[in-house]
């Protein structure tokens, strides 16, 4: 198992697949569930080709860590914010590369 090198000061981002891939996303989901112990988490993603696989792996990690996941699919970050607070979920995670180059994701 390799070290996770894609953590930055305020987010997690990296080049696909060398710095960020399905294994890393899964491990992040497991760690999130273990560290925060959420009951329910909202997950959304952008339209990048890599986002669906990363979101699926993240959801598996969260689920394996004991959280229920509400996957809202393709949306903007504001959709995750809204769903998290409106639905009274314990947390929300958005898989998006935002303004980064095409070979990145977060």
Write up this protein.
This protein has three helices and five strands; from the N terminus they run E-H-E-H-E-H-E-E. Strand 2, helix 2 and strand 3 form a beta-alpha-beta unit. 34% of the residues are buried. Helix 1 (22-36) packs parallel to helix 2. It starts with 13 loop residues before the first strand and ends with a strand. The strands form two sheets. A three-stranded parallel sheet has the order 3-2-4, sandwiched between helices. The protein is α/β, with parallel strands linked by helices and 106 residues long. The radius of gyration is 13 Å and the shape is globular. It has helices spanning 22-36, 51-64, 77-86, and strands at 14-15, 40-45, 68-74, 91-95, 104-105. The model has no long low-confidence stretch (mean pLDDT 91).
């Amino acid at each position: 198992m390799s070290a996770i090198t894609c953590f930055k000061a305020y987010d997690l981002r990296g080049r696909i697949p060398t710095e960020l891939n399905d294994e890393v996303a899964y491990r992040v989901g497991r760690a999130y569930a273990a560290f925060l112990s959420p009951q329910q988490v909202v997950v959304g993603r952008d339209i990048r080709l890599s986002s669906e696989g990363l979101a699926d792996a993240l959801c598996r990690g969260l689920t394996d860590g004991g959280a229920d996941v509400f996957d809202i699919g393709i949306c903007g970050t504001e959709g995750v914010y809204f769903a998290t607070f409106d639905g009274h979920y314990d947390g929300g995670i958005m898989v998006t590369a935002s303004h980064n180059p095409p070979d990145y994701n977060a």
